[in-house]
Design a protein that fits this description.
The structure is a single chain. The protein is of the alpha/beta class. Helix content is about 45%, strand content about 20%. It contains twelve helices and eight strands. An eight-stranded mixed β-sheet has the order 1-2-4-3-5-6-7-8, sandwiched between helices. The radius of gyration is 17 Å and the shape is globular.
């Protein structure tokens, strides 16, 4: 299953990192808002490559920021993880907020990115007031009230009904989220926009959408495909966190994409 450890970033905070050794072009996974690195377990189980996953700042076992987060800060963390793990280059696979972070890093350090796999995400997440309201609710002690609606957006009812054990694990992950970390990350979604960065990215791109995703509808994925250069679109039978709900199809699409990146990257 690999090892989980902590690294210290140049900015002085610590991040929890999971490494699974393997061969070929590495993949680094960037988690969704309100999730931790374990959301990728089922996909990583299906890959033989070196994979790195980590808890974004404010999430999981990583340090909680003292101030609202920005995409620049999250991208700096991603680069710090790559440096600490000895990854000169990798395919970045990010879901939701992780997708925004991946594009931001590709803009700032394109030589470190062999390809972008952007799942259940968009170039921005309006309206800003939505994220301000959620941050205020979390800070006011109402985070528990956000858990069930989030779970319902993340996973289809049919999947939840037929996978009670896995659904309980996802609920536990959501309940473990730090309200302070949640509120800090809301700011990155309130202010983040990678439209220009994605349009300027010259490398290979895979966009993965969920047919039943209400948070990042297929139309937002199609928007990303139009912006990106030569991007491919895969639509899975899933809601927002397709890596959990459809790991077989997700891993298959991702492996095919990484193999193509590997051939291009040499």
């Amino acid at each position: 299953m690999g090892k989980t450890h902590r690294i210290r970033t140049p900015q002085g905070h610590e991040l929890a990192v999971s490494r699974r050794d393997g061969s070929g072009l590495p993949v680094m996974f960037l988690n969704s808002f309100a999730a931790d690195h374990t959301m990728w377990d089922a996909v990583r189980d299906r890959l033989d490559r070196l994979t790195i996953a980590y808890d974004a700042q404010g999430h999981g076992a990583s340090d909680i920021p003292a101030a609202p987060l920005t995409l620049d800060e999250l991208a700096a963390d991603a680069r710090a993880v790559m440096d600490a793990e000895g990854l000169e280059t990798a395919v970045l696979c990010g879901l939701s907020l992780g997708g925004l972070t991946a594009v931001q890093l590709a803009e700032e350090a394109p030589d470190r990115v062999a390809g972008l796999a952007l799942a259940n995400t968009a170039v921005n997440f309006p309206p800003p007031g939505l994220w301000r309201d959620r941050a205020e609710a979390a800070r006011a002690g109402d985070y528990a009230g956000l858990v069930s609606p989030t779970l319902e957006r993340w996973l289809t009812k049919g999947w939840r009904d037929t996978h009670p054990h896995e659904t309980a694990q996802v609920r536990t992950m959501l309940e473990a989220m730090s309200p302070e970390g949640y509120a800090a990350a809301c700011h990155a979604l309130e202010t983040g926009d990678v439209s220009t960065a994605l349009a300027a990215w010259p490398g290979p791109t895979l966009v993965i959408a969920g047919e039943h995703d209400q948070s990042s509808p297929v139309a937002r994925s199609e928007e990303m495909v139009r912006l990106a250069s030569g991007a491919d679109l895969v639509v899975l039978d899933a809601a927002h966190v397709s890596a959990i709900e459809a790991p077989d199809a997700f891993a298959q699409a991702l492996e095919a994409f990484v193999a193509k990146c590997e051939a291009q990257h040499g």
